[in-house]
Prior knowledge:
The structure holds two protein chains of two kinds. By secondary structure, chain A is mostly beta strands.
Amino acid sequence: MSDQHHQLTQLLRKNPHVTLAYLKYPDNVPELNIHTRESYPDTKTDIPRQLYRTTVKHHTGPSFKTLICPHPITLSDHPHQRCQDEPIQLGTQIQPGGARWVGTAGAPVSWRDHNNRQLYGILSNWHVMAAGRYEDGHPQHQPTDRFPPIGHLERFTVVSPTNLNHHDSALADAMHHGFHTIDDQILNIGPPNPIPVHADLGLQVSKSGRTTGLTHATCSATGASVRVDYGNFSALFQDQDVFADTDGHFSAPGDSGSLICSKAYHKPCALLFAGGGNLTIGNPIRYVIQAYNLHFHFD
Amino acid sequence: MATIKINFDDLDVEFTVEPKQDLMNCLVQAVVACLPTFLESFFKCISPGGPSGNYNPGDRTRCQ
């Protein structure tokens, strides 16, 4: 399987106009799906030799971008965007101090720091809470930096423009003046199930995010390689989960950092970080869990 | 008879010494008295769980 992932990534490396590639198995026959930028619909694609025997299905668009949005000038009364008193429910707007953007504080999580201390805090994306400009300890505010911080950046994984990436994630410690600022709940979802789940084709999922609130989608591909536009660079991600809209848009700019979980039992499934057209991309949650030895419970 | 109290960080122990007891005996008594507390702290630190903090949610108003 990892060899297939590698071949799909090679396809994106060789073809800069390809934005997404994944395999499907309709009737147990492998089918290579290739999405190209809208501006290059008819470009011939250089397919790695190992994938020659598969049926190829070409799609035009979409291109994928991270889903942050510009820092709003006025405050909103939207439940996912307004200021909350403690303890703060997640799935809501967050802004790093001084940043020109906002995203979503995705989920309550616990982990241990480098000194083996138990921490409770917020899971979101690197490009939401850190984005290369900020170091450990940078304050995170809800909903904007006009209000006191609700946590401080504690861990993150930098997204590389040159190397292969598997996740875009960051953690903020939610301890502030002796108390934890956050609740163990995600707004409109409740507490996430502590047991994670692998995304499978057809899995019904939900997310609670800053812009579109509670929405639902279906897993339409796994093991995908995708090119994501970060504004000043683009990055390649391997072995990603793809989700298709079911009723209305599953995500929009500002929803980056949301936790995607199974609709039935709210089991953590993926970390939402990019989207385009009617598709949303999530990092399989197992990569994030492994990176920080993360837990989705506060016991 | 005198009571000696040692209070240093998490270490908080008490022990008594007889009058005119020599210094070495006093030190041995001090070490023996401190040992259980020290070992407890030590094993707590090196255990896989490490020193655990508790989830302690606040209820502060922050939106004025």
